[in-house]
Target: Molybdopterin molybdenumtransferase
Amino acid sequence: MISVEEALKIVLANQHETTVSEVPLLSSVGRILAENIYADRDFPPFNRVAMDGLAFCFDEVDLQKIAIENIQFAGEAQKTLQDISKGIEVMTGAILPLGCDTVLRYEDFNIQQDGKVKFACISIPNEEIKKGQNVHLQGSDRKAEEVLLQKGIKISPAEIAVMATVGKSIVKVQNTPKIALISTGDELVDIEETPLAYQIRTSNAYMLAAALQQIGVAATTFHLIDEEKVLYQKLKEIIESYDILLLSGGVSAGKKDFVPAILTDLGLEKLFHKVAQKPGKPMWFGKTKAGKIIFALPGNPVSTFLCFCKYVLPTLNSEIKHEEVILDKEIIFKPDLTYFVPVKTYFEAGKMMAKPFLGSGSADFANLTDCDGFVELPAEKQVFKAGEIFGFVRFR
Amino acid sequence: MISVEEALKIVLANQHETTVSEVPLLSSVGRILAENIYADRDFPPFNRVAMDGLAFCFDEVDLQKIAIENIQFAGEAQKTLQDISKGIEVMTGAILPLGCDTVLRYEDFNIQQDGKVKFACISIPNEEIKKGQNVHLQGSDRKAEEVLLQKGIKISPAEIAVMATVGKSIVKVQNTPKIALISTGDELVDIEETPLAYQIRTSNAYMLAAALQQIGVAATTFHLIDEEKVLYQKLKEIIESYDILLLSGGVSAGKKDFVPAILTDLGLEKLFHKVAQKPGKPMWFGKTKAGKIIFALPGNPVSTFLCFCKYVLPTLNSEIKHEEVILDKEIIFKPDLTYFVPVKTYFEAGKMMAKPFLGSGSADFANLTDCDGFVELPAEKQVFKAGEIFGFVRFR
Model:
């Protein structure tokens, strides 16, 4: 039996290698970027007017009253200041007219007409006007050819905006793996059936399919009965057609827990079986010679979900977000196992507190609907006091 | 000009009323539940074996050595203990045999054969065995007919598991609104074009479309030129066909900022224009008589995104998650405005710290790729010290 830390390390060191595709920009959100994105020109690409108002040359004008000689709209070619003692009206997003270096907001002056000439009569003290104000200087955010986005990041709306700006209408992303979700357990019937007294409806495959769908990964679901020959034959077929298999059930000490032995018979390399954790102790992880990855997760729904969030998601998301919470109530847990307890987080005086929902163990998944993650209580301790800080595995 | 708190209150009080649809279970993830979900039977529906091992009647057996008379698999009809001094091997997920009340794990006994009879020879002290252990009692998690999920919640994988278990193959959800994303600004060209020196490529519509896509809401994008007649005519048409309009640009003090006047001309009720915030001060919000909602957001990308995350997302998500962060560096900001600063959060001794990225203001969206949200610095203060606690608007 290995520790949670070792298990995660092994999982991360044995990931499915994905290929790369080119997709339209908007299809890339949520995916892993497979190329560096460079600035095609400076950010901003020109000295950009940042406020609607009046542009002028700070050192050359009378800061009380400035004659207006022209107007520069956004989207127009750059105009030139003809008389350096005058100004040009400018709109946000416009290129700053040649000869100007400073912009005063409309809020800070009134326009008066004096014969044919319009004047800006400034209503704020001189010392409140700074040379260069309200001008977003060319290249001040990023320089042309700078790397804006690094290969390997997860693409969110902010990255979409950056790629739009540099004209990336087609983006290279990692392909998502083909995933098979396989539940086992003879007590399970499909959700459309009415279970007999000793049966329950299947829920793990739906839960994992939903979680994968949320990160844009499609999965095919299978249900296999607990019969050695059937399991062997079906798993052999499924492994051929998928990149990653997520099994739930059949990995523990039961007389029909055939999964680990069959995976070995199928020639898979076992990378670990059993992790010093509760729930999810019987978890099995391995791979084929061709690099296909198999997670065989315990079948109790809370165990399945914890193992999925802790081990499977980080390999698909390409990121592990480290979060910490403060336990709001003492928990005592004696076994030498890392204990993952469903919690509901809330903020109190700037601290993210976690309220534990101990419930009735790893089959009590109704509990999860009140929670937003698991607190991770380390194996080395037995008493976890209110106010102590622990790791957090978020699932919502 | 109203405060951020008032603006949010008005937005939340004037939401688009959505209709209800029935969708297949897996299509409901990320959507808003439009019916209560009840337990069809007890959770668990029978006294459920929680560990592979031996079931027996605690008060009737010799806790050293127990004869085994039968085996009960998961998915089999309930068996009955014939001899109350004996036990039945049981598998996780099975119904507990009639006459038994306690389960001992395989790890805690060895099986020995004595002639034709198999015995469990128990390897742990009597006092470590508790009556009723490893049995997940019928109805201990939830009772039949109890409300499991309340109408109005957002559906995540945990809720999918619960609905699968009660056989909800078809689920009532709120329909997502039809959204039009409309950018304005004559300086903008499409992402496939090469901009001239004074032009930039459009990015807001892509950023917002990506953000909507992540929550499962489809949007149609439009770009309109800054010309009064065109704006009036096009907006009139678009309002007819969509539930919510998100405009970006054209709402400030510029000479071509026609949007607020045109929206009024179109007969919309203005609910507010200008919010005491930076960025995003010129934001306009209103509705039509038919209850269609219009957000006219400022066009600078950081302003657009902040307004979207702070005001638009909560109306689509049906939830506002209150989060707090601790500023890690002093910020001084004098104007009487709520100041939203892009930050990168990290954990330090159980506290969620926020590192500000001041950048060069509301056009510096390259900045956002380093950040995961905005810290919300209230208008009443001017000095925001390192170590102080403020609200957090997460965008990643």
Observations:
- The CA atoms of residues 111 and 191 of chain B lie 72 Å apart.
- Chain B touches chain A through 112 residues (CB under 8 Å).
- The mean pLDDT of chain B is 95.
